[in-house]
């Protein structure tokens, strides 16, 4: 089968599957702070500056999502999930070093990179 994710509800043949999940957009990966010892990168910060476009292809009973109302509801749910977890000001941070080697305020904050005068 070419299905990537398939869920069986245990109700006698009702199967939901996702064949393809595609994200199109900008993903920022920040390696900061840089340490003088191993592991060289103290933390990895991942976020999207804007909501990425998502596209889903379903299999099984989930193929019903091609009905406009169901498809819109699933799309809104995926967008809300992404917006709440990866789109600024939200971010995902993975610490690679011990807490005493990393400035937590710097790691979990978004400092401005510059200013624009109009």
UniProtKB/TrEMBL annotation:
Transmembrane helix in keyword set: yes
Residues spanning the signal sequence: none
Synaptotagmin SMP domain location: 16-93
Pfam families: SMP_LBD
UniProt xrefs under InterPro entries: Extended_Synaptotagmin, Synaptotagmin_SMP
Tree of life domain: Eukaryota
Coiled coil: none
Protein name per its UniProtKB record: Synaptotagmin SMP domain-containing protein
Source species of the chain: Zooxanthella nutricula
